[in-house]
């Protein structure tokens, strides 16, 4: 939370922006350690992901990204953000509204414009 606060974002911004982790898929080799070795994971969820991600092999097997990150579990772990996470999981409209507002705030942080910035053709590499 302190890293988000240092950028002028609230704990609520952190929670809703982390909600983007519900979109997409991840390869097995990127989350294998979490589903086999992390103590802070729902056992049923880990068992479900282990069905498509064996302890060895299957590195390219895909699984939905929702809940795969350790940081996601930390947001719903008996802390101050539990009620907000629960609310967003039940109210998609509220989540989308809050997400849009937080994305605008995030996009305004250290934004480079004009000749100082660039629109990347591939987000992983500088043009």
UniProtKB/TrEMBL annotation:
Disulfide bridge partners, by residue number: 28-53
A molecular function GO annotation: heme binding
Chemical reaction(s) catalysed: 2 a phenolic donor + H2O2 = 2 a phenolic radical donor + 2 H2O
GO BP of this protein: hydrogen peroxide catabolic process; response to oxidative stress
Binding positions (Ca(2+)): 22
Cofactors that this protein relies on: Ca(2+); heme b
Positions annotated to bind heme b: 21
Keywords assigned by UniProt, alphabetized: Calcium, Disulfide bond, Heme, Hydrogen peroxide, Iron, Metal-binding, Oxidoreductase, Peroxidase
Domain named Plant heme peroxidase family profile: residues: 1-127
Cofactor note (record): Binds 2 calcium ions per subunit.
Alphabetical list of Pfam families matching this protein: peroxidase (PF00141)
InterPro entries noted in UniProt: Haem_peroxidase, Haem_peroxidase_sf, Peroxidase_pln, Peroxidases_heam-ligand_BS
Family classification: Belongs to the peroxidase family. Ascorbate peroxidase subfamily.
The protein's name: Peroxidase
């Amino acid at each position: 939370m302190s890293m988000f606060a240092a950028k002028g974002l609230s704990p609520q911004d952190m929670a809703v922006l982390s909600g983007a982790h519900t979109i997409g898929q991840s390869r097995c080799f990127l989350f294998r350690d979490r589903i086999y070795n992390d103590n802070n994971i729902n056992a049923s969820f880990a068992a479900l992901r282990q069905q498509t991600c064996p302890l060895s092999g299957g590195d390219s097997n895909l699984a939905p990204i929702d809940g795969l990150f350790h940081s996601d579990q930390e947001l719903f772990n008996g802390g101050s953000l539990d009620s907000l996470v629960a609310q967003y999981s039940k109210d998609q409209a509220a989540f989308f509204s809050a997400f849009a507002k937080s994305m605008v705030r995030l996009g305004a942080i250290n934004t480079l414009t004009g000749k100082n910035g660039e629109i990347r053709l591939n987000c992983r590499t500088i043009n």
